Amino acid sequence: MLLINSQIKTIINEALIEDCYTQDYTTNSLVDPDLNGSAIIKAKTNGVICGIPLATEIFNYVDPTLDVLSLIEDGEIVDNNTPIISIRGKIASILISERTVLNFLQRLSGIATETNKYVSEISSIECKIIDTRKTTPGLRQLEKYAVRTGGASNHRMNLSDGILIKDNHIEALKAKGLSLKQGVIIAKSKAPHTLKVEVETETLEQVQEAIDAGADIIMLDNMDIPTIQKAVALINKKAVIEVSGGVNLTTVRKIAEQGVDLISVGAITHSFSSLDISLDIENYIN
């Protein structure tokens, strides 16, 4: 369930201000402010729905007198033409809210749907799909919620959630004459003791160095299947294994079958297709 916190309320406010919701000259000119009626929001294609609590909050932000009824819950898989939300009240308020509501519903449902495809591919294997920080600036909290709604798990929410030593960090260490093991020790000494250390590796030599350095998580970046197999054998449960890079719906199951723990997929938040969702006025009440 999505918790509507202060950050999300700010996102809603900014989205509505961006749309100049108080200056809808079309609706204000043509629609009687006292005209009441009902509308329905429907999915126009199959997918996983996400964002219903957010949509309800937007409608009530624009007009607290609107009666918004959720017909399904986030995470439900729907077919074409499935009703999602019904709204009753002032037609003008419904129309003013429409685009902002649909933008969020379509985007979040698209992420949840794409995520669920990956999760379904490896459902019979002890391995988790996780996301990345490749999210839309300002919308990370919502997009990572959509990932969870689709059945996957979240990687770091932000830079403070863990220590991830990547290739550029390693090069910076080398420039100071420091080894990866020294870098891990320094990182652990300067961060809260609760944070885990992950090291990105591209070769088996780097994997061994990460093991020797005492990394909690070892990321196998852009490795082919034979190299992943060798890396898994080398690590031998000394660390959590994450695979990243070269992951798509064609390759994800084969990767999961190699005995890795996590597969991170940036595509679920940066290369998804929004779900087709529409709002239609059903009737008017004079």
Description:
The protein has 2 domains: 6-119 and 273-285, Aldehyde Oxidoreductase, domain 3, CATH 3.90.1170.20; 153-264, TIM Barrel. The protein is built from 11 helices and 12 strands. It has helices spanning 6-18, 25-30, 52-62, 91-121, 140-149, 167-175, 180-190, 204-213, 225-235, 252-256, 267-270, and strands at residues 36-43, 47-48, 67-70, 77-78, 82-90, 128-130, 163-165, 197-201, 217-221, 240-244, 262-264, 277-285. The strands form 3 sheets. Strands 6-11-10-9-8-7 form a 6-stranded parallel sheet. It is elongated and about 75 Å long.
CATH class of the largest domain: Alpha Beta
What would you say the CATH architecture of the largest domain is? Answer: Alpha-Beta Complex
Unreliable stretches: none
Helix content: 40-55%
Task: Give the total of beta strands.
Answer: 12
- CATH-defined fold name of the largest domain: Aldehyde Oxidoreductase, domain 3
Question: Major beta sheet, specifics?
Answer: 6 strands, parallel
Q: Which overall shape is indicated by the principal axes computed on the Cα atoms?
A: elongated
- Summing up helix and strand content along with how strands pair, one would put the structural category as alpha/beta
CATH superfamily of the largest domain: Quinolinate phosphoribosyl transferase, N-terminal domain
Total number of domains: 2
Strand order, biggest sheet?
6-11-10-9-8-7
Strand residues, percent: 15-25%
